[in-house]
Amino acid sequence: MSFSPKASLSMAPWMAGVAIVAFGCDAQMTPDYKSDPIDSFRGMITSSLEHPISEAQVALVWVRDDRAVFEVVVDELVLNDGATEVEIGLSHSPDEGDFADCTLGGSRLAENQLGFGWIAVALQGVLPEGPVPLARLMELRRDGWILGFAPNHVVVWVGDEMLPDTNSARILSGTFTPGPYLMEGSSALRLAPENKSVPIVLTDSEDGFQVPFFPWRECTDVAPPAEASQSLGVDISMSPPQWGPST
């Protein structure tokens, strides 16, 4: 299976028609693709902060079992007193190293590389560049630099052509062509409805918060590594992780 996450979105339509050769014998399988990749989606930001802010950044946080990478997709966003609608563009894929490897290093050729992007709103100019440990991601949320996640939505970037009856297809509840998709769900993922804004509520971390679904166990068939659960402070095989008010 060739892995080409840097392929442009304009390539996705013709790639969908490529025949996929099944492994073993000479049979061929053509997945029943459920949708086409998207190039943007809308978010709806509201706030319950004790001290409201007027400006923020919107980022996709590409998470793996051991680290996170921030991609700022909307900079210097002016927030309204009430709700603020924002268009979130998906112009390029995450770097190859930011994908979750369901192929287990190429040992399972039928599986896929999947990028899981949490949708986050943060204070302007505070997000670090480059990969950070998961522990740092949680510190940014607990310390109030990240103001909120979209707890029930995640951007999934499909790295290669998908085959049915694989862990990758089960994670996404179907097969999809390479490219980005907006998914929803708190214990399993499914395609989010079109033309519906993603709600993101800004809250003080002291009030407790929830992070989006990350199907590590489903991708790898094994329990998350201990260091990943320790970094998050919770067993990430249990989705979605939640944190209560500080005591």
Can I get a quick summary?
The chain has helices at about 10-15, 135-140, 165-170, 215-220, 225-230; strands at about 20, 30, 40-45, 55-65, 65-80, 85-90, 100, 115-125, 130-135, 145-150, 155-160, 180-185, 190, 200, 210, 240-245. With about 250 residues, it is mainly beta. The N and C termini lie far apart (about 50 Å).
SSE ordering = HEEEEEEEEEHEEHEEEEHHE
Total tally of structural domains: 1
Counted beta strands: 16
The chain-level mean pLDDT equals 81
Structure in words:
By secondary structure, this protein is mostly beta strands. It has one domain (37-220). The protein has helices at 12-15, 134-142, 167-172, 216-220, 226-232; strands at 20-21, 28-29, 40-47, 55-63, 67-78, 84-89, 100-101, 113-123, 132-133, 146-149, 153-158, 179-184, 190-191, 198-202, 209-210, 242-243. The strands form four sheets. Strands 4, 5, 7, 8, 9, 10, 11, 12 and 13 form a nine-stranded antiparallel β-sheet that branches. The chain is globular. Residues 1-30 and 233-247 have low confidence and may be disordered.
